[in-house]
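Lecture 7 notes: from sequence to structure.
We start with the chain below.
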Amino acid sequence: MLGTSLSLFSGAGGLDLGLEHAGISTLACVEMDAGARSTLALNRPSWQLYEPSDVNLAAEELRPRTLGLRARQLDLISGGPPCQPFSAAAQWNSTSRRGMDDPRADALHGMLRLVAEFRPRAVLLENVAGFFNGPVSALPYLQAGFDEINIRYGTAYRLDVAVLDAADYGVPQHRRRAIAVARRDGKRFYFPEPTHDAKPVTAWDAMGDLPPETWTPPAGAWTELLPSIPEGGNYLHMTAKGAGPELFGWRTRYWSFLLKLARARPSWTLPASPGPNTGPFHWDNRPLTNRERMRLQSFPDSWRFSGSARAQTRLIGNATPPPLAEALGKQLVIQLGLGAPEARRRLLRAPSVLVRNHRDDCPEPQEPMPLSPRFARMVGTKNAHPGTGRGPAPRERAESG
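Predicted C-alpha coordinates for the same chain:
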Protein backbone atom coordinates (compact mmCIF):
# COMPACT_ATOMS: atom_id res chain seq x y z
CA MET A 1 0.00 0.00 0.00
CA LEU A 2 1.11 3.56 -0.74
CA GLY A 3 -0.67 5.49 2.00
CA THR A 4 -2.79 5.24 5.13
CA SER A 5 -6.25 6.50 6.06
CA LEU A 6 -8.46 6.92 9.11
CA SER A 7 -12.05 6.36 8.01
CA LEU A 8 -14.87 8.31 9.68
CA PHE A 9 -18.58 7.70 9.02
CA SER A 10 -17.46 4.61 7.10
CA GLY A 11 -20.89 3.23 6.22
CA ALA A 12 -20.74 0.06 4.16
CA GLY A 13 -17.15 0.75 3.08
CA GLY A 14 -17.60 2.09 -0.45
CA LEU A 15 -15.26 5.04 0.03
CA ASP A 16 -12.63 2.92 1.79
CA LEU A 17 -12.85 0.15 -0.81
CA GLY A 18 -12.22 2.64 -3.60
CA LEU A 19 -9.29 4.16 -1.72
CA GLU A 20 -7.90 0.66 -1.17
CA HIS A 21 -7.87 0.10 -4.93
CA ALA A 22 -5.95 3.37 -5.21
CA GLY A 23 -3.29 2.08 -2.82
CA ILE A 24 -4.51 3.73 0.40
CA SER A 25 -4.91 1.36 3.34
CA THR A 26 -7.59 1.92 5.97
CA LEU A 27 -6.12 1.64 9.47
CA ALA A 28 -9.36 2.07 11.44
CA CYS A 29 -13.04 2.86 10.92
CA VAL A 30 -15.23 4.98 13.20
CA GLU A 31 -18.82 4.00 12.40
CA MET A 32 -21.88 3.89 14.69
CA ASP A 33 -24.40 1.92 12.63
CA ALA A 34 -24.47 -1.74 13.71
CA GLY A 35 -25.33 -3.03 10.23
CA ALA A 36 -22.52 -1.04 8.66
CA ARG A 37 -20.06 -2.29 11.29
CA SER A 38 -21.11 -5.88 10.61
CA THR A 39 -20.69 -5.29 6.88
CA LEU A 40 -17.19 -3.90 7.37
CA ALA A 41 -16.24 -6.84 9.60
CA LEU A 42 -17.56 -9.34 7.04
CA ASN A 43 -15.52 -7.89 4.21
CA ARG A 44 -12.41 -6.36 5.76
CA PRO A 45 -11.60 -7.81 9.19
CA SER A 46 -8.22 -6.05 8.96
CA TRP A 47 -9.96 -2.66 9.20
CA GLN A 48 -10.07 -1.98 12.93
CA LEU A 49 -13.57 -1.05 14.13
CA TYR A 50 -12.74 1.60 16.67
CA GLU A 51 -14.62 1.93 19.97
CA PRO A 52 -16.28 4.20 20.90
CA SER A 53 -17.93 4.22 17.51
CA ASP A 54 -19.40 7.73 17.82
CA VAL A 55 -17.07 10.25 16.15
CA ASN A 56 -17.56 12.83 18.91
CA LEU A 57 -16.73 10.30 21.62
CA ALA A 58 -13.83 8.91 19.59
CA ALA A 59 -12.40 12.42 19.29
CA GLU A 60 -12.05 12.58 23.07
CA GLU A 61 -9.60 9.68 23.21
CA LEU A 62 -8.41 8.56 19.74
CA ARG A 63 -4.84 9.72 19.25
CA PRO A 64 -2.16 9.00 16.60
CA ARG A 65 -0.31 6.69 19.02
CA THR A 66 -3.49 4.56 19.24
CA LEU A 67 -2.83 3.59 15.62
CA GLY A 68 0.94 3.36 16.03
CA LEU A 69 1.53 6.79 14.48
CA ARG A 70 2.84 10.21 15.39
CA ALA A 71 1.03 13.49 14.72
CA ARG A 72 1.30 14.49 11.03
CA GLN A 73 2.25 10.92 10.02
CA LEU A 74 -1.21 9.85 8.82
CA ASP A 75 -1.78 10.47 5.12
CA LEU A 76 -5.56 10.86 5.01
CA ILE A 77 -8.72 11.29 7.06
CA SER A 78 -11.69 10.39 4.90
CA GLY A 79 -15.42 10.08 5.34
CA GLY A 80 -18.98 10.92 4.41
CA PRO A 81 -20.58 12.82 7.34
CA PRO A 82 -24.34 12.46 7.98
CA CYS A 83 -26.07 14.07 5.03
CA GLN A 84 -29.71 14.42 6.10
CA PRO A 85 -29.41 18.07 7.23
CA PHE A 86 -27.99 19.01 3.80
CA SER A 87 -30.04 16.75 1.50
CA ALA A 88 -32.28 17.98 -1.31
CA ALA A 89 -35.33 17.27 0.85
CA ALA A 90 -33.92 19.41 3.68
CA GLN A 91 -33.10 22.25 1.28
CA TRP A 92 -36.62 22.18 -0.16
CA ASN A 93 -38.50 21.93 3.14
CA SER A 94 -38.09 25.02 5.32
CA THR A 95 -39.23 23.16 8.43
CA SER A 96 -36.21 20.84 8.20
CA ARG A 97 -33.73 23.41 6.80
CA ARG A 98 -31.45 23.54 9.85
CA GLY A 99 -28.02 22.59 8.47
CA MET A 100 -25.34 22.96 11.15
CA ASP A 101 -28.08 23.56 13.78
CA ASP A 102 -29.37 20.03 13.16
CA PRO A 103 -28.18 17.59 15.87
CA ARG A 104 -27.19 15.17 13.10
CA ALA A 105 -24.50 17.67 12.05
CA ASP A 106 -22.78 17.45 15.45
CA ALA A 107 -20.43 14.78 14.11
CA LEU A 108 -18.61 17.46 12.08
CA HIS A 109 -17.35 18.92 15.35
CA GLY A 110 -15.75 15.60 16.30
CA MET A 111 -14.30 15.19 12.83
CA LEU A 112 -12.51 18.54 13.06
CA ARG A 113 -11.15 17.64 16.49
CA LEU A 114 -9.67 14.46 15.01
CA VAL A 115 -8.14 16.45 12.15
CA ALA A 116 -6.53 18.70 14.75
CA GLU A 117 -5.14 15.68 16.64
CA PHE A 118 -3.79 13.76 13.64
CA ARG A 119 -3.07 16.66 11.25
CA PRO A 120 -3.03 14.31 8.23
CA ARG A 121 -1.57 15.27 4.89
CA ALA A 122 -5.08 15.57 3.48
CA VAL A 123 -8.75 15.34 4.39
CA LEU A 124 -11.31 13.90 1.94
CA LEU A 125 -15.05 14.46 2.46
CA GLU A 126 -17.88 13.08 0.35
CA ASN A 127 -21.53 14.07 0.68
CA VAL A 128 -24.73 15.09 -1.08
CA ALA A 129 -24.50 17.99 -3.52
CA GLY A 130 -26.20 20.36 -1.05
CA PHE A 131 -23.50 19.85 1.56
CA PHE A 132 -21.42 22.75 0.24
CA ASN A 133 -24.05 25.01 -1.26
CA GLY A 134 -27.58 26.24 -0.65
CA PRO A 135 -29.04 27.95 2.42
CA VAL A 136 -27.77 25.30 4.90
CA SER A 137 -24.25 24.75 3.55
CA ALA A 138 -21.62 23.30 5.88
CA LEU A 139 -18.83 25.06 3.97
CA PRO A 140 -18.50 28.21 6.15
CA TYR A 141 -18.31 26.10 9.32
CA LEU A 142 -15.69 23.77 7.85
CA GLN A 143 -13.60 26.65 6.50
CA ALA A 144 -13.64 28.29 9.93
CA GLY A 145 -12.67 24.99 11.55
CA PHE A 146 -9.70 24.47 9.25
CA ASP A 147 -8.63 28.10 9.73
CA GLU A 148 -8.57 27.55 13.48
CA ILE A 149 -6.46 24.41 13.07
CA ASN A 150 -4.06 26.30 10.83
CA ILE A 151 -3.61 29.11 13.35
CA ARG A 152 -3.13 26.72 16.24
CA TYR A 153 -0.77 24.21 14.60
CA GLY A 154 0.90 26.09 11.78
CA THR A 155 -0.71 23.99 9.06
CA ALA A 156 -2.09 25.41 5.82
CA TYR A 157 -5.28 23.44 5.16
CA ARG A 158 -7.44 24.87 2.41
CA LEU A 159 -10.66 23.45 1.03
CA ASP A 160 -11.14 22.67 -2.63
CA VAL A 161 -14.71 21.71 -3.48
CA ALA A 162 -16.38 20.19 -6.54
CA VAL A 163 -19.60 18.39 -7.39
CA LEU A 164 -18.84 15.26 -9.42
CA ASP A 165 -21.17 12.85 -11.20
CA ALA A 166 -20.20 9.25 -10.43
CA ALA A 167 -21.25 8.25 -13.96
CA ASP A 168 -18.30 10.23 -15.34
CA TYR A 169 -15.94 7.80 -13.57
CA GLY A 170 -17.36 4.47 -14.69
CA VAL A 171 -20.27 4.07 -12.26
CA PRO A 172 -23.48 2.99 -14.05
CA GLN A 173 -25.47 5.59 -12.13
CA HIS A 174 -25.90 9.35 -12.31
CA ARG A 175 -25.05 10.31 -8.75
CA ARG A 176 -23.92 13.87 -8.08
CA ARG A 177 -21.71 14.06 -5.00
CA ALA A 178 -20.05 17.01 -3.30
CA ILE A 179 -16.35 16.34 -2.76
CA ALA A 180 -14.06 18.42 -0.59
CA VAL A 181 -10.32 17.92 -0.24
CA ALA A 182 -8.10 19.86 2.13
CA ARG A 183 -4.32 19.53 1.71
CA ARG A 184 -2.17 20.27 4.75
CA ASP A 185 0.48 22.00 2.62
CA GLY A 186 -2.02 24.56 1.32
CA LYS A 187 -1.64 23.48 -2.31
CA ARG A 188 -4.62 23.17 -4.57
CA PHE A 189 -6.15 19.75 -5.10
CA TYR A 190 -6.91 18.98 -8.75
CA PHE A 191 -9.98 16.79 -9.11
CA PRO A 192 -9.76 13.77 -11.44
CA GLU A 193 -10.70 14.29 -15.06
CA PRO A 194 -13.78 12.32 -16.18
CA THR A 195 -12.96 8.98 -17.76
CA HIS A 196 -16.42 7.87 -18.94
CA ASP A 197 -18.31 11.06 -19.73
CA ALA A 198 -18.27 10.35 -23.47
CA LYS A 199 -19.27 6.68 -23.12
CA PRO A 200 -20.76 5.96 -19.70
CA VAL A 201 -21.23 2.50 -18.26
CA THR A 202 -24.92 1.63 -18.62
CA ALA A 203 -27.44 -0.22 -16.51
CA TRP A 204 -27.27 -3.09 -19.00
CA ASP A 205 -23.47 -3.18 -18.77
CA ALA A 206 -23.89 -3.55 -15.01
CA MET A 207 -26.82 -5.95 -14.83
CA GLY A 208 -27.21 -7.64 -18.20
CA ASP A 209 -25.40 -10.81 -17.14
CA LEU A 210 -27.25 -11.36 -13.86
CA PRO A 211 -29.32 -14.55 -13.66
CA PRO A 212 -33.01 -14.32 -12.68
CA GLU A 213 -33.50 -13.59 -8.99
CA THR A 214 -36.38 -13.62 -6.57
CA TRP A 215 -37.73 -10.13 -6.18
CA THR A 216 -40.36 -8.46 -4.05
CA PRO A 217 -43.53 -7.56 -6.00
CA PRO A 218 -44.23 -3.82 -6.32
CA ALA A 219 -46.26 -2.58 -3.36
CA GLY A 220 -47.17 0.94 -4.48
CA ALA A 221 -50.71 1.90 -5.39
CA TRP A 222 -49.50 3.26 -8.74
CA THR A 223 -46.91 0.65 -9.74
CA GLU A 224 -49.42 -1.13 -11.94
CA LEU A 225 -48.75 1.75 -14.35
CA LEU A 226 -45.10 0.80 -14.84
CA PRO A 227 -45.69 -1.33 -17.99
CA SER A 228 -47.28 1.74 -19.61
CA ILE A 229 -44.22 3.93 -19.03
CA PRO A 230 -41.27 3.73 -21.46
CA GLU A 231 -37.77 2.82 -20.34
CA GLY A 232 -36.02 5.85 -18.85
CA GLY A 233 -39.34 7.59 -18.26
CA ASN A 234 -41.40 8.44 -15.20
CA TYR A 235 -44.90 9.71 -14.41
CA LEU A 236 -44.30 12.75 -16.68
CA HIS A 237 -45.01 10.42 -19.61
CA MET A 238 -48.62 10.47 -18.41
CA THR A 239 -49.06 14.26 -18.26
CA ALA A 240 -50.20 16.88 -20.77
CA LYS A 241 -46.60 17.35 -21.94
CA GLY A 242 -45.86 13.62 -22.18
CA ALA A 243 -46.64 11.16 -24.95
CA GLY A 244 -48.99 9.00 -22.88
CA PRO A 245 -52.54 9.42 -21.58
CA GLU A 246 -53.01 12.27 -19.11
CA LEU A 247 -53.25 10.83 -15.61
CA PHE A 248 -51.20 13.39 -13.65
CA GLY A 249 -50.62 17.12 -13.66
CA TRP A 250 -47.29 18.28 -15.08
CA ARG A 251 -44.61 18.35 -12.35
CA THR A 252 -47.08 17.62 -9.55
CA ARG A 253 -45.12 14.58 -8.34
CA TYR A 254 -41.51 14.04 -7.28
CA TRP A 255 -39.05 13.15 -10.04
CA SER A 256 -38.51 9.52 -9.02
CA PHE A 257 -42.25 8.75 -8.97
CA LEU A 258 -42.65 5.68 -11.24
CA LEU A 259 -39.14 6.23 -12.63
CA LYS A 260 -37.80 3.35 -14.76
CA LEU A 261 -34.30 2.38 -15.78
CA ALA A 262 -33.25 2.55 -19.40
CA ARG A 263 -30.99 -0.36 -20.33
CA ALA A 264 -28.81 1.76 -22.62
CA ARG A 265 -28.17 4.55 -20.10
CA PRO A 266 -26.80 4.82 -16.56
CA SER A 267 -29.27 4.50 -13.72
CA TRP A 268 -30.72 7.46 -11.90
CA THR A 269 -29.59 7.98 -8.30
CA LEU A 270 -30.46 5.07 -6.02
CA PRO A 271 -32.32 6.16 -2.87
CA ALA A 272 -31.45 4.69 0.52
CA SER A 273 -35.06 4.34 1.65
CA PRO A 274 -37.27 4.13 -1.44
CA GLY A 275 -41.01 4.48 -1.03
CA PRO A 276 -43.41 2.01 -2.66
CA ASN A 277 -43.80 4.18 -5.78
CA THR A 278 -40.20 5.46 -5.81
CA GLY A 279 -37.81 4.44 -8.56
CA PRO A 280 -35.68 3.72 -10.27
CA PHE A 281 -37.56 0.53 -11.06
CA HIS A 282 -36.20 -2.25 -13.24
CA TRP A 283 -37.07 -2.10 -16.93
CA ASP A 284 -39.06 -5.30 -16.29
CA ASN A 285 -41.49 -3.18 -14.20
CA ARG A 286 -40.44 -4.35 -10.75
CA PRO A 287 -38.31 -3.15 -7.84
CA LEU A 288 -34.58 -3.68 -8.07
CA THR A 289 -33.01 -6.46 -6.05
CA ASN A 290 -30.20 -5.60 -3.68
CA ARG A 291 -27.75 -7.45 -5.91
CA GLU A 292 -28.77 -5.19 -8.78
CA ARG A 293 -28.39 -2.16 -6.53
CA MET A 294 -24.88 -3.33 -5.65
CA ARG A 295 -24.02 -3.56 -9.34
CA LEU A 296 -25.36 -0.05 -9.99
CA GLN A 297 -23.18 1.23 -7.13
CA SER A 298 -20.21 -0.76 -8.56
CA PHE A 299 -19.55 -2.92 -5.53
CA PRO A 300 -17.85 -6.19 -6.48
CA ASP A 301 -20.04 -9.28 -6.27
CA SER A 302 -17.83 -10.57 -3.45
CA TRP A 303 -18.86 -7.70 -1.16
CA ARG A 304 -21.41 -8.87 1.40
CA PHE A 305 -23.98 -6.72 3.18
CA SER A 306 -25.27 -7.45 6.65
CA GLY A 307 -28.81 -7.27 8.02
CA SER A 308 -32.34 -7.51 6.66
CA ALA A 309 -33.19 -6.77 3.04
CA ARG A 310 -34.41 -3.29 4.02
CA ALA A 311 -31.25 -2.61 6.03
CA GLN A 312 -29.10 -3.73 3.08
CA THR A 313 -31.02 -1.43 0.72
CA ARG A 314 -30.27 1.49 3.04
CA LEU A 315 -26.57 0.63 3.31
CA ILE A 316 -26.22 0.24 -0.44
CA GLY A 317 -28.14 3.45 -1.19
CA ASN A 318 -26.06 5.48 1.26
CA ALA A 319 -22.70 4.17 0.03
CA THR A 320 -20.05 6.01 -1.94
CA PRO A 321 -19.59 4.31 -5.34
CA PRO A 322 -16.14 2.69 -5.10
CA PRO A 323 -14.89 3.73 -8.60
CA LEU A 324 -15.49 7.40 -7.75
CA ALA A 325 -13.51 6.92 -4.53
CA GLU A 326 -10.77 5.14 -6.46
CA ALA A 327 -10.44 8.03 -8.93
CA LEU A 328 -10.15 10.49 -6.04
CA GLY A 329 -7.69 8.23 -4.23
CA LYS A 330 -5.42 7.96 -7.25
CA GLN A 331 -5.23 11.73 -7.49
CA LEU A 332 -4.41 11.96 -3.80
CA VAL A 333 -1.60 9.42 -4.22
CA ILE A 334 -0.17 11.28 -7.21
CA GLN A 335 -0.54 14.83 -5.89
CA LEU A 336 0.68 14.05 -2.37
CA GLY A 337 3.53 11.93 -3.72
CA LEU A 338 2.64 8.85 -1.68
CA GLY A 339 4.78 5.76 -2.07
CA ALA A 340 7.65 5.19 -4.48
CA PRO A 341 7.60 6.91 -7.93
CA GLU A 342 7.47 3.61 -9.82
CA ALA A 343 4.53 2.44 -7.72
CA ARG A 344 2.68 5.64 -8.54
CA ARG A 345 3.37 5.17 -12.24
CA ARG A 346 2.02 1.62 -12.12
CA LEU A 347 -1.08 2.91 -10.35
CA LEU A 348 -1.79 5.41 -13.11
CA ARG A 349 -1.32 2.83 -15.85
CA ALA A 350 -3.52 0.16 -14.26
CA PRO A 351 -7.19 0.10 -15.36
CA SER A 352 -9.79 -0.05 -12.61
CA VAL A 353 -11.10 -3.53 -11.85
CA LEU A 354 -14.12 -1.90 -10.18
CA VAL A 355 -15.46 -0.52 -13.49
CA ARG A 356 -17.50 -2.95 -15.54
CA ASN A 357 -16.82 -3.48 -19.24
CA HIS A 358 -19.24 -2.39 -21.93
CA ARG A 359 -21.52 -5.06 -23.38
CA ASP A 360 -22.59 -5.22 -27.02
CA ASP A 361 -25.78 -7.25 -26.55
CA CYS A 362 -28.16 -4.64 -25.15
CA PRO A 363 -31.76 -5.41 -26.26
CA GLU A 364 -34.01 -2.79 -27.76
CA PRO A 365 -36.41 -1.17 -25.28
CA GLN A 366 -39.90 -2.60 -25.02
CA GLU A 367 -42.83 -0.54 -26.23
CA PRO A 368 -45.12 0.77 -23.45
CA MET A 369 -48.29 -1.24 -22.86
CA PRO A 370 -51.80 0.25 -23.04
CA LEU A 371 -53.35 1.38 -19.79
CA SER A 372 -55.15 -1.22 -17.73
CA PRO A 373 -58.93 -0.66 -17.46
CA ARG A 374 -58.47 0.31 -13.81
CA PHE A 375 -56.70 3.52 -14.82
CA ALA A 376 -58.32 4.24 -18.20
CA ARG A 377 -61.35 5.88 -16.54
CA MET A 378 -59.01 8.34 -14.75
CA VAL A 379 -57.68 9.88 -17.97
CA GLY A 380 -58.49 13.56 -18.38
CA THR A 381 -57.25 17.12 -18.04
CA LYS A 382 -55.19 17.72 -14.89
CA ASN A 383 -53.85 20.91 -13.33
CA ALA A 384 -50.10 21.43 -13.67
CA HIS A 385 -47.84 22.64 -10.87
CA PRO A 386 -48.24 26.44 -10.64
CA GLY A 387 -44.49 27.06 -10.93
CA THR A 388 -41.32 27.41 -8.91
CA GLY A 389 -42.00 29.01 -5.53
CA ARG A 390 -45.75 28.97 -6.10
CA GLY A 391 -46.66 25.61 -4.62
CA PRO A 392 -48.92 25.19 -1.56
CA ALA A 393 -46.15 25.43 1.08
CA PRO A 394 -44.68 28.75 -0.18
CA ARG A 395 -48.20 30.23 -0.47
CA GLU A 396 -49.00 29.27 3.11
CA ARG A 397 -45.79 30.90 4.34
CA ALA A 398 -46.51 34.11 2.42
CA GLU A 399 -50.05 34.34 3.79
CA SER A 400 -48.91 33.73 7.38
CA GLY A 401 -46.07 36.27 7.13
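Points to note: The chain is about 30% helix and 10% strand. Strands lie at 3-8, 24-30, 48-49, 76-79, 122-128, 158-165, 176-183.
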